[in-house]
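Notebook B, p. 112. Complex prediction, attempt 2.
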Amino acid sequence: MRLLYISHDQLSFSHGLLATADPKTDVVVMVESKRMLESKKWHRQRLWFLLSAARHFADELTTKGFQVHYVKAATTIAGIELVMTETEIRDVHANEPLSHRLQDNLTSAGITLHPHNFFLISRTDFLDWARTQKHLKMENFYRFQRKRLDVLMDGDDPVGGQWNFDKDNRLPPPKNHTWPVPLYFELDEIDREVLKDIEHLDLYGEIPEGDFAPTRSAALQQLNHFLKTSLNDFGPYEDCVPNDSWNVNHSLLSPYMNVGLLNPAEIIEKALDYAENHEVSLASLEGFIRQIIGWREYVNGVYWFFEPEYKSLNSLNANRELPEFFYDPEKTQMNCLSSTVSDVMKRGWVHHIPRLMILSNFATLAGIDPQAFLGWMREMFIDAADWVMVPNVIGMGVHADDGRMMTKPYISAGAYIKKMTNYCNGCAFNPSKRTGNDACPFTTLYWNFLDEHKDTFSSNQRMWQQYSGLKRLSDLEDVKEQAKVVLQKLEDNTL
Ligand SMILES: Cc1cc2nc3c(=O)[nH]c(=O)nc-3n(C[C@H](O)[C@H](O)[C@H](O)COP(=O)(O)OP(=O)(O)OC[C@H]3O[C@@H](n4cnc5c(N)ncnc54)[C@H](O)[C@@H]3O)c2cc1C
Ligand code: SF4
């Protein structure tokens, strides 16, 4: 007999070890560890989603005839050892884990690890590709994926003659627009039981209100709903943040994919199939496919390509503490940040642009400690996991890796936030002002950042325009004084 350890982020019957497992020869162990529950103060919905998805999955495994040991223990290894003793099975197997820490722990415990297909590219194939690259550019990886997976290809050329239709995307929030209505999922008995079990823990955030449901059937409903209601306009509205829709045209699939309930291969297959039988704009289809076969796979690849210490990098020497408004959105007058943090507290999810253009941009400009920011993101998001948060925050979000992932920092002043969101109209600050009491902190800190880091970035070709703007700034000294005021207010939690 074999004992198969199934982790809470690999809940799949069709991928990994369970695809070929047999109830006659395989017993399953799943562990709800104290460490998982209590090592951090989590967002309630993040912990709920993870536990409820695993408990639903364990029930389904039992229905399929497997003997399942779902145990609670101090650590994962303690839980596995407990079941080894109970069952007297010594031959333990697991899928390769999705984090360095679990990989080390399972390896040290002598558990046999198996490569798997939870991603479209294997770890070794990504490493082989990465070793041939001078710089790990996502666009190059994406083209490599398109060719090797034969997705949206016309022979050796991209369908439509272009690899990337981003220039057709990036529209600001439209006026009087009707947005896709998100699905609503009723909580079931297991969901409620999990919420009760975690009631005693000190957690952040509100209780779930039906935006996500931790089951395979909900994952499939969400995928079909996205294809029908949102795919066609995914591209144009991908980067905008309107105040009358939280989901916009995004797929809301990340929580499902990241626990294994949906596989990227089936998403691509269904999206292509849907587009073949319905009118879907190529720019939107390509944009969505790029997220799945490009960004998601690339981020996972670089997580394993970079050393585990990558998550501790701080190349811009940013040491400021996380301001209190990250936990209490009422504590800032900046409407964009207050609204975004409120949304995070509400459902543990905001789309890519608030994560990047509002939260990460502010953390970079204000010089917030990258590890403190990473810790907050890890705790708060329903779809968070080490492999996806570490590169997205350290590399893409706050550029703490000395440009190993992105060629330039993602920073912008208030004017771009004004263009792409509806936040500035209701704000105490003015996005076009960089000095004075009502100057937008993003705008002030943006110019201050460029000046402060000119030795590092002014010779960067891709930042040429930003630095010529800085050279033309007639009031730089006033801006630097204003930045001191802003940063002091930030420290006093009065911004
Ligand atoms: C600072 C920061 C932190 C992030 N943290 C996470 C995280 O913890 N978990 C997570 O899944 N995504 C993370 N992302 C990526 C992205 O924001 C989310 O995947 C996306 O917002 C999830 O919503 P969606 O499923 O509706 O995505 P859509 O906009 O519908 O995109 C479809 C899918 O593409 C994939 N994708 C797109 N961009 C990325 C990316 N940069 N990295 C990985 N996958 C991507 C996701 O699987 C997503 O579900 C982060 C991005 C930033 C800038
Ligand atoms: S004015 Fe500045 S702080 Fe206010 S919402 Fe706009 S970008 Fe944010």
